[in-house]
Specification:
The chain is α+β, with helices and mostly antiparallel strands. Helices cover 17% and strands 35% of the residues.
Length: 716
């Protein structure tokens, strides 16, 4: 008995952390990647990641800082000092591991639409259950290790002492193993519409200070940071992307930069807090994709695989859409969205708005829209987008109006009954446009009536927009509140069997797998900026690695006339514009230029008419971010192959192996840059050749500066 007592007393003298210093490893299914977990002497749980035993993420911190108890009774009268009115709870160390589970999955799933008809989801999983000693709070960390990267998320289980709580910060770190080359855009809570910088990680602060400061609308709390998806390449030639997956009921993540250490920085709400949660709850997945080649990174479906399966039983109403629209003529400076040309207030029906005389440049009038419908019907397009059709465009910009649009009242020169009847007669549907002016509560108060109107007239797709500062005032485009709003709009649209193309919304994180009526997003600098001063040619060679990592983009390609009425020039060749229909994947593709520009070049326009929208298989053949991307895709249903390639401002030549074609002979129709084409001074020069090829052949192609190539293959 005495001996047992002495043993018991000796155990009590051992420090708690020394008793249990947790550590372990997890390998990816093919053994390429290895995850390491360990606790330091503070009881913090650290994770690290290697590929081929090569370090990718050095041991990095996990956890949060939570808002604690209110300490100041005069809170309501001291909002400017709100952060000082609360205790803060550090939930980054003093953990004990109270359990763990391991598991695995190897399954296939079929997307409603996508870059391939079947996607493999294979990972090993490790869940670690933590208890925070000082508070007793419970926290789980769930790791899924794929052959092409890592996903991990936090889960707050149901627990007695932590149910409703606010986040002061998420403290997740990504300590990169070197000063990698990075392609990045600056942290901004309201816009993703930037061109990319290419610098070492250590060079970000200098560029941020010299070229970025002052180019955002609001102060960012002196944060030097970048947006995800962040693309990097290390000295050994590995490609790494940091992003997030399944962003729901949580603020969008940016990355604060400190040397080669990147730390999660969540978009704050109007009071500065990073989120309000209720346990049980989970965070989005934090993702680290790492591959040996750029083409392997483009083939990765890790972000999609971390999202839940489709939430809808019936998806028969969801389909790809190829469309034209009343859009580029306003963007390029030939027309206007607003019906009036001065600003006296009058009443039309029961609505007050500004009108004096009709603006002769108003584009969305009945006769003009009918011309687009005729063009779409004549050339086999599914739909016509009409922007500027509804009351409210006169005085929304910069005025922070709450009641701005009702989304059902057309302008006097747009006969919505006649236009819809005409479209249906021609076998064409219309794409509704809902510009909200970021008055979110106004959109939600009118949303049901707006969707009902779409059902009544047979609209299948809506393009929504969120230009301007958010109302409720003081909030941001990528806060938890707005993340929830965007998904609310998508799920409400689903009740009405409506597909959504959201512009200026939060960047995609793979939610299109779960909610496939989210058929498109903008969420990056798109073609419209070609009319606002131009975009560097290399931009389209970076977006497939970054913006498209989480879902498709409505990039609106297909410009044939490169000099705009605005005075701007489109920095691309015509062949480069054709190639974008393959390199910039989307099930929603616009032929963005004016009908007369297409009819002037029917031979080149044929490619846009022919190219598929939905794919059985995709193969990335050549790629280097910022330089070039060449991809071949096999159309779902027909089995026909299409190829697209784009380059930056340099002329490049390739010999393309055609082994993807399979057996037989094929007629290749090659839409190429003319020998003297150049995106600045001979952008519209192209040539079309037909060749007979086999899978054993290689096809030589040359892409002009800022140019591209598009090829269709028809089996003989």
């Amino acid at each position: 008995m005495l001996k047992k007592l002495l043993i018991f007393l000796s155990l009590l003298t051992v420090p708690a952390v020394a008793q249990q210093r947790f550590s372990g490893t997890l390998s990816s299914p093919d053994g390429t990647l290895s995850l390491q977990l360990e606790q330091d002497d503070r009881g913090a749980l650290l994770y690290g990641l290697t590929i081929d035993s090569h370090p990718v993420v050095l041991p990095s911190q996990l956890g949060f800082v939570l808002r604690g108890k209110r300490t100041e009774p005069q809170y309501r009268f001291e909002r400017q000092n709100k952060a000082n009115l609360y205790d803060l709870t550090d939930l980054t160390d003093h953990f004990e591991v109270i359990g763990q589970q391991r598991g695995a999955d190897d399954s296939w799933w079929e997307p409603v639409w996508g870059e391939e008809s079947r996607i493999r989801c294979r990972y090993n999983e490790w869940t670690v259950h933590l208890r925070h000693r000082p508070t007793g709070y419970l926290l789980d960390v769930i790791f899924r290790l794929f052959d092409d990267g890592l996903g991990f998320r936090y889960a707050f289980p149901a627990q007695k002492d932590l149910t409703f709580f606010a986040l002061a910060d998420e403290c997740t770190q990504f300590r990169m193993a070197g000063d990698h080359t990075a392609w990045w855009i600056p942290v901004d809570f309201d816009s993703q519409e930037y061109e990319y910088h290419q610098t070492p990680l250590s060079g970000i602060p200098a560029v941020f200070a010299d070229r970025v400061h002052g180019h955002v609308d609001r102060p960012l709390q002196d944060v030097v940071g970048v947006q995800t998806a962040l693309l990097m390449k290390d000295a050994a030639g590995y490609y790494i992307t940091l992003h997030e997956a399944a962003l729901k009921d949580y603020a969008c993540m940016h990355l604060k930069v400190d040397g080669t250490t990147l730390t999660a920085f969540l978009t704050p709400d109007a009071e500065g807090w990073k989120g309000h949660l209720q346990a049980p709850s989970v965070t989005p997945w934090r993702t680290v994709q790492v591959t040996r080649s750029a083409t392997d990174l483009l083939q990765s479906r890790l972000v999609l695989n971390l999202n839940d399966p489709c939430a809808y039983e019936d998806v028969s109403w969801i389909h790809p859409v190829k469309y034209v629209g009343v859009w580029w003529e306003m963007i390029s400076g030939r027309g206007d969205w607003h019906y009036t040309n001065d600003f006296s207030t009058v009443t039309v029906g029961q609505t007050d708005y500004t009108r004096a005389t009709r603006n002769p440049r108003h584009s969305a009038h009945t006769e003009n829209v009918k011309k687009y419908i005729d063009f779409a019907a004549r050339h086999g397009f599914d739909a016509v987008l009409v922007e500027g059709w509804n009351q409210g465009w006169e005085d929304w910009d910069g005025n922070s109006k709450d009641f701005v649009y009702d989304f059902v009242t057309p302008y006097p020169d747009f006969d919505i009954d006649a236009v819809n009847a005409y479209a249906h007669e021609k076998g064409v549907s219309l794409v509704m446009h809902h510009e909200t002016a970021s008055s979110v509560r106004n959109y939600e108060r009118h949303m049901e009536a707006a969707y009902d109107l779409m059902n009544r007239y047979g609209y299948e797709t809506v393009k929504s927009g969120y230009c301007g500062d958010i109302i409720p005032r003081g909030d941001y485009h990528y806060s938890q509140f707005m993340v929830n709003h965007y998904l609310y709009a998508v799920t409400e649209a689903a009740r009405h069997h409506i597909m959504v193309n959201a512009h200026e919304a939060v960047r995609p994180t793979g939610l299109c797998r779960t909610y496939p009526n989210l058929i498109g997003n903008e969420s990056a600098k798109g073609t419209e900026y070609q009319a606002f001063g131009g975009i560097a040619p290399g931009h389209v060679t970076i977006l497939p690695f970054t913006r498209l990592n989480g879902g498709p983009m409505d990039y609106t390609p297909g410009i044939f006339k490169m000099d705009c009425a605005s005075g701007s020039h489109v920095n691309s060749t015509l062949a480069g514009q054709l190639a974008l229909y393959v390199t910039m994947y989307s099930p929603l593709q616009m032929a963005a230029d004016l009908p007369e520009h297409y009819e002037a070049r029917p031979d080149a326009f044929q490619w846009i008419k022919d190219v598929a929208l939905d794919w059985e298989e995709s193969r990335y053949l050549f790629a280097e971010p910022g330089d070039y991307v060449i991809v071949a895709r096999k159309a779902k249903g027909s089995g026909q192959w299409f190829l697209g390639g784009v380059t930056d401002g340099e002329r490049r030549s390739f010999s393309i192996p055609l082994d993807f074609l399979g057996k037989g002979r094929f007629e290749a129709t090659v839409y190429a840059d003319a020998p003297d084409a150049h995106y600045r001074y001979n952008a519209e020069a192209y040539r079309i050749e037909k060749k007979i090829v086999r899978a054993s052949d290689s096809l030589p192609v040359t892409l002009a500066e800022g140019g591209g190539v598009a090829i269709s293959f028809k089996k003989l």
